Amino acid sequence: MKPVFVIAVVTMSVSSAAFGQTKGAETGADSFALAVVQAVLQTEFECDRALMQGDISRLEHLVYDGATRTDPSGAMTDKAQWIEAVREGRVRYVSIEREDMKVRIFGGVAVVTGIVDIKWQGNGRDNDSRNRYLRVYVHRQGRWQLVAHQATRIAQP
């Protein structure tokens, strides 16, 4: 079976509250490819919603056991460390808004890039940042799971 290669550009300014809503998807991709892109985006927004709601069981389901996360400071955490910070309330996500999202599918792997405006509470204070991000998802056991997340702070002009 030949691997499916799809590049779908989804240009949007969305908040995670707009879960499942996309605009501007390329019309040249076939309906199967668009369904795959929609499934990846659905997982993306479900992750955001679970983070904002502190839904640990949902995060456990959506994030691959061997996942890694690199934050804008360069600090790297694994799934257990990331989820533990949310569980213990050391980090509380207030809002996550994504834009300029691009989804690329390579068979059972999806790469999502874009810009995210995020507000969170941690280290005893309110924080916010605007980042470029890259997330990698893998399709396994009938679902998409987050396997890697990396964010880079966008310098203020």
From TrEMBL:
The protein's matches in SUPFAM superfamilies, at most eight in alphabetical order, are given as: NTF2-like (SSF54427)
Keywords, in A-Z order: Signal
Limits of the DUF4440 domain: 47-146
Query: Hey, what's the signal peptide range on this chain?
Result: 1-20
A UniProt-annotated Pfam family: DUF4440
**Name of the molecule in the record:** DUF4440 domain-containing protein
Provide the taxonomic classification: Bacteria, Candidatus Handelsmaniibacteriota
